[in-house]
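During the second year of the project, the team shifted from modelling isolated chains to modelling whole assemblies. The rationale, set out in the original proposal, was that interfaces cannot be judged from single-chain predictions alone. As a representative example for this report, we include one of the complexes processed in the last quarter. Its constituent sequences, exactly as entered into the pipeline, are reproduced here:
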Amino acid sequence: MYPILKAEKLADKIHLMVVKAPRVAKNCQPGEFVIVKIDEAGERIPLTICDYDREEGTVTIVFQIVGASTDRMAELKTGDQFRDVVGPLGNPSEFVKEDLEELKKKKYLFVAGGVGTAPVYPQVKWLKEHGIDADVIMGSKTKDLLILEKEMEAVAGNLYVTTDDGSYMRKGMVTEVIKDLVVNQGKKYDVCVAIGPMIMMKFVCLLTKELGLPTIVSLNPIMVDGTGMCGACRVTVGDSVKFACVDGPEFDGHAVNFDEAMKRQQMYKTEEGRALLKLREGDTHHGGCGHCSDN
Amino acid sequence: MDVMKKVPVREQDPKVRATNFAEVCYGYNEEEAVAEAERCLNCKNARCIAGCPVNIDIPAFINEVKEKRYEDAANTIAKSSALPAVCGRVCPQESQCEGKCVRGIKGEPISIGKLERFVADWSREHGFVPKAAEEKLGKKVAVIGSGPAGLTCAGDLAKLGYDVTIFEALHEPGGVLTYGIPEFRLPKQGVVQPEIDNVRKLGVKIETNVIIGKSVTVDELMDEEGFSAVFIGSGAGLPKFMGIPGENANGVFSANEYLTRSNLMKAFRDDYDTPISTNKKVVVVGGGNVAMDAARTALRLGAEVHVVYRRSEAELPARVEEVHHAKEEGVIFDLLTNPVEILVDEKGWVKGMTVIRMELGEPDASGRRRPVEVPGSEFTIDCDAVIMSLGTSPNPLISSTTGGLEINKHRCIVADEKNGQTSREGVFAGGDAVTGAATVILAMEAGKAGARGIHEYLSNK
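Output from the structure prediction step:
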């Protein structure tokens, strides 16, 4: 059993939890994910690690209610526990393994959309801890859905916040901010890391390709085991089929076939008797990108 | 009674069982078991023992059944096997013990598998508990993976007095017994769980949710957590796909995914959250036991099911009983047929499959006649789901994070067949992680060999 040391509602349908999982906390790195299972009947839910504390043996997860299991997870309180937490899974972000001196010469731009802010945070924090200031764009549908702003402010170089409806800070999509920074203000970036709804990542990649800015995306497709066993998370990157769980979750955004990935995301949307699962598309589709018409 | 024929085993009616997940075969009752045991010739030179990968003293336990000394029979089997209730159900007896049975020369062989199952079920129902070691050796051994290889290795080492911990990546122990083989063939609560509990009763600890290579490495286990030796029985978990067009369409699953959803996550039950695709017409590609399991699961979830296999019935690698059961239940076999392309609708879902007729040519490296395409014989099968059951290969997570561990070109760990010794001192391996996908009983044989190798290594250290 894995006790919950802190449970906090960040926004409508978005929850943060700090969970005791010493084996995960000991070896995890930014970019990696865990799978949690609330109880015997629960689904295995993959969630990118948002933060970790090696001394305390804890990991922080942020999730949005998208189906039956996450709906029940949202009810959990401090002192409750998860039946299962396994990880770390996937590969660390590329910069973790890079030579630090080389890395310090690079300028990073992070683009965080909606709940995608959670996996962006540990990356920006890691860079900050290693003496590197990265610029961050945070996008959300509306002011009330913005999460982790203060935390991000503490670790980011320049932070640009934008909302689709203009209810807070800038008004507009994250892609407009990228364009403003790179084209109008002439800022130079070496790498862009975009994490958020699939549709946001697609449009960020279309733009950064045009701008000649290499872009890394983090995918969170449907998966069961998370160790390469089921193959449900397969995604086409360039000419080859990859398993997001063991080959990713981060990939070259300019090579990812987003249209196929978005279709695959819908797979269990139509299953009978799974009332809440009709919201599953929301898994990576939770506003903030400005491209969603039905969200 | 015809002594040349097996005592028939009672089964659920095919029409009824095609709609439920309860066990197909009821097994022998006492009377039937004794009657079947009486057919045994009790050969002096018992060929069946040599046919069993773990060399159970088959004539001895059958004789004990004949004399109704069931606890003795359980003890005889326990000397060689930790998982008799599993093996009695899933071993390919026709090519092992029963294939060697002298009775089988003129008539039907003794139903050794069903007798083993009877003894195992009897001892479970009568609370028979395996004996734990009296003396502890004070040495820690880590076993990676709680499938047949790991459970067997751990059980044998615990009986010798070692302090054994099994590390399991999933949230439930059992490996393929839990995620792979369906309920209707191997009941989880009734059979698998009690066998795992028996291994625990020997003193073995099982820690779930630990992915070796990620949560902790083999080096950390040995250098920081005080394990003197490690046995890797992590199986062959990575599914293969064909690489044909349309394979990433919605509705194309690996058999691993489909079966894991149903067996491990219990998606077939309404009271569990995990969804599973329910379809009208499913094509299963492949002819092994896993293909049969996937086909029969899809059938139970309400689909019309076709098995597409490129060779003929004689070459089907599945157990004869599985093919027989699948046919009885209504699975349709499209033999000498091979997929060419999966057809996809505008929304990205499977709508059919183009296949081509095959014929058998000259024998290939495996000794089976090689299937070759019949030119111009393509045709289309309408379907709304495809399950790929083409075999699996080992996960590279452990081998790529363990220093000095040699692997071959198939990513299998190189290990000595006799004792499981790998290229790394103190590290042993066996089962599908070494051989690639094989059977439960061969993995158990490798688990036993690994336990012997580890005992020898630690005794001389």
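The CA atoms of residues 247 and 342 of chain B lie 6 Å apart. The radius of gyration of chain B is 23 Å.
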